[in-house]
Amino acid sequence: MAEIAKKRPEFRNINFFRDLPSYRMPPSAIVSILHRVSGVLIFALLPFIIWLFDTSVSSELSFARFRAAFETGIGFVPGVLVKLVVLALLWSYLHHLFAGLRFVWLDVSHHSVNKEFGHKSARGVLAVSLVLTLLLGAKLFGLY
Prior knowledge:
3 helical TM bundles of succinate and fumarate reductases; elongated; mainly alpha
């Protein structure tokens, strides 16, 4: 005798305030959304990234200015805010890298793709990117 499957909820007219807070996104959806967010963040802060690279390698004087940006700040922006922006860039880069590698692996290996692997690899991407961000952030803020 066949078992009757549990009826899944239908979302036809989604109410933003009533339905979305109770909706549980799977880890793979979270990774996908954050991959896009991290890409936009990297693209939006590209002039800042180029300035950081340019001032760090141009000369000894510009490298001193680069280090001072993290200690005293840039103009009216305090050094802590500069460090927080760089920390956001670190997370963006790491998440974008590992999520991109996950997507390439999912595209290449058609035989090993299933729901369980999708959940595990998404959780792995989130864990690795956050742990590495915490480690590099601790170094950035001078904890070790």
